[in-house]
Automatic annotation (TrEMBL):
<dbReference type="GO" id="GO:0030170">
    <property type="term" value="F:pyridoxal phosphate binding"/>
</dbReference>
<dbReference type="GO" id="GO:0030378">
    <property type="term" value="F:serine racemase activity"/>
</dbReference>
<dbReference type="GO" id="GO:0000287">
    <property type="term" value="F:magnesium ion binding"/>
</dbReference>
<keyword id="KW-0456">Lyase</keyword>
<dbReference type="GO" id="GO:0003941">
    <property type="term" value="F:L-serine ammonia-lyase activity"/>
</dbReference>
<dbReference type="InterPro" id="IPR001926">
    <property type="entry name" value="TrpB-like_PALP"/>
</dbReference>
<dbReference type="GO" id="GO:0005524">
    <property type="term" value="F:ATP binding"/>
</dbReference>
<comment type="similarity">
    <text>Belongs to the serine/threonine dehydratase family.</text>
</comment>
<dbReference type="InterPro" id="IPR036052">
    <property type="entry name" value="TrpB-like_PALP_sf"/>
</dbReference>
<feature type="domain" description="Tryptophan synthase beta chain-like PALP">
    <location>
        <begin position="27"/>
        <end position="300"/>
    </location>
</feature>
<keyword id="KW-0460">Magnesium</keyword>
<dbReference type="Pfam" id="PF00291">
    <property type="entry name" value="PALP"/>
</dbReference>
<dbReference type="GO" id="GO:0008721">
    <property type="term" value="F:D-serine ammonia-lyase activity"/>
</dbReference>
<dbReference type="GO" id="GO:0006563">
    <property type="term" value="P:L-serine metabolic process"/>
</dbReference>
<dbReference type="GO" id="GO:0070179">
    <property type="term" value="P:D-serine biosynthetic process"/>
</dbReference>
<protein>
    <recommendedName>
        <fullName>Serine racemase</fullName>
        <ecNumber>4.3.1.18</ecNumber>
        <ecNumber>5.1.1.18</ecNumber>
    </recommendedName>
</protein>
<dbReference type="InterPro" id="IPR000634">
    <property type="entry name" value="Ser/Thr_deHydtase_PyrdxlP-BS"/>
</dbReference>
């Protein structure tokens, strides 16, 4: 039986109802991604681990769920002018692909320092690339100009109820595939993924524990939870390029209320987790996708008695779009 509190709170940008609606809306287009297990990794972690492989999602990442829900939520007269976003990563490719499926234009503002593989994905899916400087101010200003010129609809990468609802469909699948899960570990950046996952999971099982995994060099969510307010960093520095954004005003209340803790790991731990994913699970993961495993294996998790009852842990592998040159250099270190 699903709970109506707090996941149906009117203060949140999404709820279990909007997530259920998203599941119906996007079902014809998304992959129901597999859940993998490994006795070797269970032994290393001392827990039973379940890996939700969103690296096998269309576009190579979970982002396609939210993008697909947002685009197919639009009325025809809205959609015909296209969509616009600013993104350096998987949301850009996901939106381009979803727009292609609906047959509408996608204008993607991308900073000049974006990973090459993710830019190529946008082009492959037919997105129109508009370059900006790396700063958030430049990205937003460029996107606003595109909006004025085209009349397209802005689809924010994470600070959007439609995006949050789409990402929440992961929990609906995951907890059906592995109902014994008592803890979910989810990457956190802008908060769209973990907000949707937490809303759905807590509605299905209010006792489930939701843990965020975050890079040490981009730990704004950790700082925000401590301070009780959105806390932005003056700079970020992490190999996990998909986890460099800050929480938004729509995602923060959900993270504040429903995420039980944030586990911070360094880049060396992320790289080691990537190596284990390649060598043991035999799957391609990007740094952001490996951070959940890194969190489980970290001293901060393993030596914390608060996590002693986390015995069946679901880990969201968020994506597998990795620049091969960066990958080899990282794994050789």
């Amino acid at each position: 039986m699903e709970s109506n509190s707090p996941t149906s709170c009117e203060d949140y940008a999404a709820d279990i109802s909007s997530i259920r609606q998203a599941q119906v809306r996007i079902e014809p287009f998304v992959h129901k991604t597999p859940v993998l297990t490994s006795e070797t990794l269970n032994s290393i972690a001392g827990r039973k681990l379940y890996f939700k492989c969103e690296c096998f999602q269309k576009g190579g990442a979970f982002k396609f769920r939210g993008a697909c829900n947002a685009i197919y939520s639009l009325a025809d007269n809205q959609a015909e002018k296209g969509v616009v976003t600013h993104s350096s990563g998987n949301h850009a490719a996901a939106l381009a692909l979803a727009a292609k499926l609906r047959g509408i234009p996608a204008y993607i503002v991308i900073p000049k320092n974006a990973p090459k593989c993710k830019v190529e994905n946008v082009k492959r899916y037919g997105g129109q690339v508009i370059w900006s400087e790396p700063s958030m101010e430049s990205r937003e200003n460029t996107a606003n100009k595109v909006l004025q010129d085209t009349g397209a609809v802005l689809i924010h990468p994470y600070n959007d109820g439609r995006i949050i609802s789409g990402q929440g469909t992961i929990s609906l699948e995951f907890l059906e595939q592995a109902s014994e899960i008592d803890t979910l570990i989810v990457p956190i950046s802008g908060g769209g993924l973990i907000s949707g996952v937490a809303l759905a999971a807590k509605a299905i099982n209010p006792a489930i524990r939701i843990l965020a995994a975050e890079p040490m060099g981009a730990d704004d969510a950790f700082q925000s939870k401590i301070n009780g307010r959105i806390t932005k960093l003056s700079e970020v520095n992490t190999i996990a390029d998909g986890l460099r954004a800050f929480l938004g005003d729509l995602t923060w209340p959900i993270v504040r209320d429903l995420v039980d803790d944030v586990i911070v790991v360094d880049d060396k731990e992320i790289i080691q987790a990537m190596r284990l994913c390649y060598e043991i699970l035999k799957i391609a993961v990007e740094p952001s996708g490996a951070i959940g495993l890194a969190a489980v294996l970290s001293d901060g998790f393993q030596q914390n008695p608060a996590y002693s009852e986390c015995n069946h842990i679901g880990i969201v592998i968020s994506g597998g779009n990795v620049d091969l040159g960066v990958l080899w250099n990282s794994l050789e270190k």
